[in-house]
Amino acid sequence: MKHPQNSDLWVHILGIAGTFMGGIAQLAKAKGFRVSGSDKAIYPPMSTQLLQAGIEVTPYEQDTTLSVSNHHFPDVVVIGNALSRGHNLVEATLNAQQSYTSGPQWLAEHILADRWVVAVAATHGKTTTASMVAWILEYAGLNPGFLIGGVPENFGVSARLGESPFFVVEADEYDTAFFDKRSKFVHYHPRTCVINNLEFDHADIFENLAAIQKQFHHLVRTVPGNGLIIKPSDELNVDEVLAKGCWSPVQSQGLQNADWTYRLLKQDATEFEVLFKGELKGQIYWGMTGLHSVRNALSAIAAAVHCGVPVEHCIAGLCEFKGVRRRMTLVGETAKGIKIYDDFAHHPTAIETTLLGAKNALKITSTLKGIKPGHNSAPNGRLVAVFEPRSNTMRMGVHRDTLPAAFACADEVFAFIDPDWHWHLPASLFTQPVTVMSSYEALLEVLIKQLQPNDTVVMMSNGSFGGLHHRLLDALNQKDNE
Question: Which of 57, 127, 408, 450 has the most neighbouring CB atoms within 10 Å?
């Protein structure tokens, strides 16, 4: 596929350091545009990717691109959805009567218009499933393009233009921009559409579940009759969306009563069989854990098969799938066997499935060591959950009452809660010890004191968590050497 050169056209991106907008920047640069941008905070991994792509980035307060004193303005300003009316750069764009657009709209017009789009939508698992699809297509030699809200370890970047007709996009239901309140994914017009699950989230922009379902049905309306929708066999909320009207073929995935099903060969889901309409297609052996990973894999396989990849190639490719950064990523292990994982989970369902997968992995470890299961403090160590309720929805208190059940698999829970959030954790409803700290430093100190040899620590946040993952690992290693 040839990409036209656009070196004379200048794209300036406001909010460039976010994963999505940073991906837009990299795609625009690869397409031949001159690209620049600014953001409030610029940090890895996106700052590294932008630097490697040769893209000029400045902090908001130093961005003079739209100043009235300039004689040369960008050809278009792409405005991220984190910026609202009142932001000085938004106001400068409007006052100068600059041409502006949203990230999803720019993507649709300049990247997706001539591609076979595979869109992955869901409340949970979008990033991982989209990464799986992109990797399967890559494994099959198709060199796909992709834009994913994370960094797939098999690629090392979150966005790539690619050379084939296929483009995989993580289809986010969050709103598009201050001037376009539709969900991002309505712009993508996929031929292959995955809807993995659907729950209430993003309470800052959606009034209730029905409002989210309405947006998902807008997505369904864009899938052509010769396309494919892939859905779970056991998600009532998704079924209700399709019941509003569906004009495309549908395939399902699940444990049973589905087109694509699975049989576990190991309890932690590191080995399982893949079946299509009851016929065994192969076995997957990989480093992923948890039933949610298996379900993501079935969706990815169905999507790739629709793109023309033989199912055997899909299965072989997933056996070499390395996961996604910040999705149960092992930060490191101390000399005393304390393992620290970094995970993006910030919704009760994601927290529950992540911890369940970790707990099952611990049980497998116990069996291999000849340890009888039962006691939480067995020599294989405890499962320790560390989290911060950082998302807008969580801080609004929407999920507070469902949190205790989400942490059921953890042996002990630690939390960071900023006093400015005015958020109270219902610690009395938890069945295990809960420790709440109001600063990262205090949380770090208590973890250093209370963690025990062979503990598995899962740190969950949709932010940077104050860099606590590496700081904790370094502090524990230093403690071991004293």
Answer: 127
